[in-house]
Amino acid sequence: MKHQWLAYVIVGLLSIGAGVAIAGLPDNVPVDATIVAPTTDVDPEPTLPETTVATTTVPPTTEPETTEPETAKATTTVAPTTTVPDTTAPDTTDSGSTQLPDRGELNVAAANVANVAGAAARMVTTLEEIGYVDIVPLDGTGIVEFTTIYYADGFEEAADRLALDLDLLPFFVSPLEVAPSVDNLPADVELLVYIGVDRA
After folding, report:
1. Which one, of 197, 2, 23, 17, lies nearest residue 112 by Cα?
2. Closest CA to 197 of 118, 113, 94, 125
3. How would you class 168 by CB atoms within 10 Å of its CB: exposed for 0-12, middle for 13-18, buried for 19 or more?
4. pTM, whole model, 2 decimals?
5. Cβ–Cβ under 8 Å, residues 172 and 121
6. In the chain, helix, strand, coil percent, each to 5?
7. Using CA atoms, how far apart are residues 25 and 17, in angstroms rounded to an integer?
């Protein structure tokens, strides 16, 4: 009789437990919420900070335009050459002729036959500038128009040179023996400049 009662009590408890399990516990039953953090044996990989690379924009380099100045063409002006005729006769002549003596070695006289005061003195200065020396100034008689060179025998070429020195034409050269008489003319004179009005 006692064992039958105990069986009823056990069955009842089981029924209550089953009902509670099916219906669930009441909502107001406090339940300790325990959050257990998951554990892991693997160490987390370090996170590198994100690096932002600054982008530098290089402006395009523009080379300055090289403008070469236009080179002006060099112009060379050639001055016209003026050929001055050589009025000095050469000191030597062709083969067979006598060599001309130096101007300073000749005996020269200058006779004024232009009736112009100082004509002989001016001619002496002109002849000295050319290279003649010790010119004897004289006064002739009468008046002649054109200057003439008279030469002693053997000095014709020297007379031609003197005519060129004075810019006289060749036909104004004659032998001394045909010259008009001149007072005080030295006996050793080799060239005589007979000064006319044209050179006075």
Report:
1. 197
2. 113
3. buried
4. 0.52
5. no
6. 30, 10, 60
7. 11
Q: What is the CA radius of gyration of the chain?
A: 72
Residue 123 in contact with residue 110, Cβ under 8 Å? yes
Q: How far is Cα 49 from Cα 54, in angstroms, rounded to an integer?
A: 15
Amino acid residing at 122: R
pLDDT tens per residue across all 200 residues of the chain: 555 667 676 777 787 766 656 655 555 544 444 444 445 454 555 555 554 444 455 555 555 455 554 544 445 555 555 454 454 444 444 434 568 999 999 999 999 999 899 999 999 999 999 999 999 999 888 889 999 999 999 999 999 999 999 999 988 999 999 998 898 999 999 999 999 999 88
Distances (CA, A) of 7 to 10, 16, 21, 53, 152: 5, 14, 21, 82, 199
Spatial distance between the Cα atoms of 161 and 107, rounded to a whole number of angstroms: 14
Grouping H, G, I as helix, E, B as strand and the rest as coil, residue 18 is helix
Which residues have a Cβ under 8 Å from the Cβ of 197 and sit 6 or more positions away?
Answer: 114, 116, 143, 144, 145, 146
